[in-house]
Amino acid sequence: MPDLDPIPFTLDPPGRIAVIGAGPLGIETALYGRFLGYDIQVYESRFIGSNLLSAEDSNLPLLPDRSLSNLAVRALQTQNETMPLTFPVTLHEWVENHLSQLAETDLLHGRVHVGCEVQSIEPCPVESDEEEVPPDFQLAITNNSANAQEETHECVIIATGSDVNFKTPEIGVTPYLFRIGGTTHDNWEDSFQAGLREIVNVFAELGGRSDLDLYRPKRI
């Protein structure tokens, strides 16, 4: 009889998940996890969407209606049912009128911590009667006041773009440690859509369900 593939580690809601980075993919990752019922905390070293903004308010480098997932659209519409949703046409609008507003929706309010820079991620052994349990992760974080704190999470999803400037276990090998948006593509829209697919894959793996996809349109 051939060897059976080992059962992957899964994490059921309300498992504790840290998302590092509050750019478009970081906010979308946090929102996706909250829709599934996970306990999400987001840590951003500067401010929401900081990597998108410059002194010049540039035009949005992708189609406006492709800048938000269907979950983000639903969250914004639910939060303000009296005003029609308009899509952004500049980077500042994307950040100020959409990403920042998503952070204040009921799903994410109080869970996006700006000015909190992660210094390191260290495995933290878990005491358990089970034969094999992956370690938790201890995050060393410094805030704008240079105060240090430590936070423990069962899963970490890094969504900082191409750079990871802190100490971390090996990504892609360590259970419950993921990275979103680390691969660059030819244009913004391809990069963003690829990142959304990575979000789907991460939570499908965490849930042990290859068919789990909250972005898939519902049948009417």
Radius of gyration: 18 Å
Contiguous runs where pLDDT drops below 50 for at least 5 residues: 1-6
Output the CATH topology: FAD/NAD(P)-binding domain
In the residues, how many domains can be counted?
Answer: 1
The largest sheet is: 5 strands, parallel
Q: Which structural class do you get from the secondary structure elements?
A: alpha/beta
CATH superfamily: FAD/NAD(P)-binding domain
Helix content: 25-40%
Average pLDDT, rounded to a whole number, is 90
> Any idea what the shape is?
globular
User: Strand percentage, roughly?
Assistant: 15-25%
The secondary-structure element order is EHEHHEEEEEEH
CATH architecture: 3-Layer(bba) Sandwich
CATH class: Alpha Beta
Number of helices: 4
Describe the structure concisely for a colleague.
With 220 residues, the protein is an alpha/beta fold.
Q: What would you note in describing this structure?
A:
With 220 residues, the protein is an alpha/beta fold. It has one domain (16-207): FAD/NAD(P)-binding domain. 25% of the residues lie in helices and 20% in strands. It has four helices and eight strands; from the N terminus they run E-H-E-H-H-E-E-E-E-E-E-H. It has helices at 24-35, 70-79, 91-103, 188-207, and strands at 16-20, 39-44, 112-114, 116-124, 136-143, 148-153, 155-158, 177-179. A five-stranded parallel sheet has the order 3-2-1-7-8, covered by helices on one side. Strands 4-5-6 form a three-stranded antiparallel sheet, with no helix packed on it. Helix 1 (24-35) runs parallel beside helix 4 (188-207). The longest helix has 20 residues, at 188-207. Residues 1-6 have low confidence and may be disordered.
